[in-house]
Amino acid sequence: xxxxxxxxxxxxxxxxxxxxxxxxxxxxxxxxxxxxxxxxxxxxxxxxxxxxxxxxxxxxxxxxxxxxxxxxxxxxxxxxxxxxxxxxxxxxxxxxxxxxxxxxxxxxxxxxxxxxxxxxxxxxxxxxxxxxxxxxxxxxxxxxxxxxxxxxxxxxxxxxxxxxxxxxxxxxxxxxxxxxxxxxxxxxxxxxxxxxxxxxxxxxxxxxxxxxxxxxxxxxxxx
Length: 223
Description:
- Its EC number is 2.7.6.2.
- Keywords: ATP-binding, Kinase, Nucleotide-binding, Transferase.
- It is an enzyme of class 2 (transferase).
- By secondary structure, the protein is an alpha/beta fold.
- Helix content is 23%, strand content 31%.
- It has helices spanning 22-31, 41-47, 64-69, 84-89, 107-119, 212-221; strands at residues 6-7, 11-15, 34-38, 54-57, 74-76, 92-93, 96-100, 126-129, 133-137, 144-146, 153-158, 164-169, 185-198, 203-208.
- Strands 2, 3, 4, 5, 7, 8, 9, 10, 11, 12, 13 and 14 form a twelve-stranded mixed sheet that branches.
- The longest helix has 13 residues, at 107-119.
């Protein structure tokens, strides 16, 4: 059993080491005011004028200056069987997590984060927020209600074999076997509010960045 390092009653903002905009961090902290950094994300936090309450990871990326300034808040997890993102997410107990600095950087880092999202079903609901996209893992068997508008982009990418049902998509997914090495569901579009349900874990839902509130409503407010 993994013991928590950070426990909050509301949401937590998780800041990784990839690209992040000041406005996105401000928006994240408005929804989830408790800031946790992933390794080198601590440098992002300090550069943008914020001190995280905890820094979690193997500490191979954090600068010496940040390490010294945040010495009492650093939690070294040395094992190499998981990524820093997994180390941090699995040690946060919160109603939800907004993760920044995970999209738009190295592709291998993004893929590792996507893999962690669909595997960590016991972790708090997590929304990845980037400059262009919002990404979350759809929970297995639970309805997802997205208050979208006609024309909004809705991409579905399976990280494992998944089937599902949909209402409000231009191209419905009923009867389709979706899998990463076969048919995927990218570049679909909403015709209005969208309802989704998937038979198993493994589906990533990808929306435009300006639909963060819709994603939040579906994954968190609707729980």
